[in-house]
Design goal:
502 residues, 7-stranded parallel β-sheet
Length: 502
């Protein structure tokens, strides 16, 4: 029987500037899901990449005095370099300047046109060059500005090709009312439904004033409006991600598409409408997360309030960054981040709660039992508190409750720390009559740490590998996640997992 497929995507990132922590955030979240589903034996495909066409890139290139292609080539490599630095295990990195992507976009749009959903017309209205977005009246902020970038909107008048979005008013309402899980969390679902119910207007499919983009196949003097080009990457990548193979039938429709809330309209309204128009299946779910905030503002290149993920990794390691971003801000919500909060989490939870628990558990087995783990059952009280834990974590991750799943595991990390204090193995070690009790405590701690580390591997892959190696139990398959699922016989010396910082 073939393994169940799991296809997860991040949005593709604009190459108008270098990557920042917000980009790392979404990619890390997608990687946690990809790693977890691989643990469960599923056939996983994880896609990320860069969005390289359109006005924002053309304008950024003009400001720097380089061609759009030069800017795209330079910054795409920075985004490509981010993935291994944060230990992301993406299966492919798409660039929308790839010739294969462009050819497939043209093919799909020809199908959309053949199905009667494209016509010529005049667009006149308000436009944000940084969003590359034609704004509806409901989307315009005070002073005729963009609510996201806080810049004045421009008045555009263009003879374009249009996509007949209005034809999908009823199909989209039906989709959202009959499949409320299509957009999550619920607050974002309500936004999408509200936008559709406000009345859909036809939107530009092309841009006549731009040259940096994919030529419209039936009108090469125009380029495809960047959002249609970008959205289609989730499908087009599968056609050429593996040389000589078309993976579309294997992985499409996507299982989960992660996006930030500023691109909700495009992914929960335009995207399903385009797929319907092209006779393509819809993704199973679009999950919309909030913003990482600094000083109350969204972290954004254009606003200038960014943290450098590379600097954080250089000092603390990638696992610490992965943990903090998905621990401090409940995934799906807006949340503030800061260097002070990061360092506090690192010290209190990673170094003390988890790192110290692992170190002292290993050290006590080495000290009191010469590194040999007693082969006795775990303490029934602890076993009861671990009962069903892998299933609960899997259910939360299936619901994209990434922060809640991490908390479910962390509750047991804290419980094992309390167990150490309650049982005081250093006291038991002084009493020969308590040797049996000490064996149970040591076996329970080692097995508890092992099982929790298997569950934590998607969040802390580097640390998990080091610790499980020291325990002589490197397997991270999900059948190894239950307490008592594996037997650790001996432990090796373990250096501090999260060293104290000066």
């Amino acid at each position: 029987m073939a393994a169940r497929s799991f296809y997860v995507t991040t949005p593709i990132y604009y190459v108008n500037a270098a990557p920042h922590l917000g980009h790392a955030y979404t990619t890390i979240a997608a990687d946690v899901l990809a790693r977890h589903h691989r643990q469960r034996g599923e056939d996983v495909f994880f896609l990320t990449g860069t969005d390289e066409h359109g006005e924002p890139v053309a304008l950024a290139a003009e400001r720097e005095g380089v061609s759009p292609q030069e800017l795209a080539d330079r910054n795409a490599e920075r985004f490509r370099a981010l993935a291994p630095r944060i230990d992301a295990t993406n299966d492919f990195f798409i660039r929308t300047s790839d010739a294969e992507h462009g050819a497939r976009v043209q093919e799909i749009l020809e199908q959309v046109r053949a199905n009667g959903h494209v016509y010529e017309g005049i667009y006149e209205g308000w436009y944000c060059p940084r969003c590359a977005d034609f704004k509806t009246e409901q989307e315009i902020a005070e002073g005729n500005t963009c609510p996201i970038h806080k810049i004045p909107l421009t008045r555009e008048h263009e003879h374009n090709w249009f996509f007949r979005l209005s034809a999908f008013q009823e199909p989209l309402e039906r989709l959202l009312t009959e499949s409320p899980e299509f957009v999550r969390p619920r607050s974002r679902y309500n936004e999408a439904l509200s936008f559709v119910r406000s009345g859909l207007q036809d939107v530009s499919l092309s841009r006549r004033k731009l040259t940096w983009g994919i030529p419209v196949p039936w009108d090469p003097e125009q380029v495809v409006y960047v959002w249609w080009d970008a959205l289609l990457n989730y499908v087009t990548a599968l056609a050429y991600a593996r040389p000589g193979q078309d993976l579309t039938a294997v992985y499409w429709p996507a299982t989960c598409q992660l996006i930030a809330k500023d691109i909700l309209k495009f992914h929960t309204v335009y995207w399903p409408a385009l797929l319907m128009a092209a006779d393509l299946p819809l993704p199973e779910q679009v999950f919309v997360h909030g913003y990482l905030l600094m000083d109350g503002e969204k972290m954004s290149k254009s606003l200038g309030n960014v943290l450098d993920p590379f600097a954080v990794i250089d000092r603390f390691g990638s696992d610490a960054l992965r943990f903090y971003l998905l621990r401090d801000v409940p995934f799906g919500q807006d949340g503030s981040v800061s260097a002070a909060a990061f360092e506090e989490r690192y010290e209190r939870e990673l170094a003390n709660d988890y790192g110290n628990l692992a170190s002292r558990s290993v050290a006590m087995v080495r000290r009191y039992r010469h590194g040999v783990v007693p082969q006795v059952p775990c303490d029934p009280a602890i076993a009861a508190e671990f009962e069903g834990l892998p299933g609960r974590v899997a259910a939360l991750l299936d619901a994209i409750e990434i922060t809640q799943a991490l908390e479910e595991v962390w509750q047991r990390v804290r419980r094992l720390n309390r167990y150490v204090e309650e049982r005081a193995p250093w006291v038991l070690a002084k009493d020969e009559a308590a040797a049996g009790e000490l064996d149970v405590v040591l076996a329970t701690l080692i097995e508890g740490v092992r099982a929790l580390t298997v569950l934590l591997a998607p969040w802390l892959p580097v640390t998990a590998s080091r610790l499980l190696e020291a325990l002589g139990a490197p397997e991270i398959g999900y059948d190894a996640a239950a307490l008592g699922a594996r037997s650790v016989t001996a432990v090796a010396a373990l250096e501090p997992l999260f060293p104290k910082q000066p």
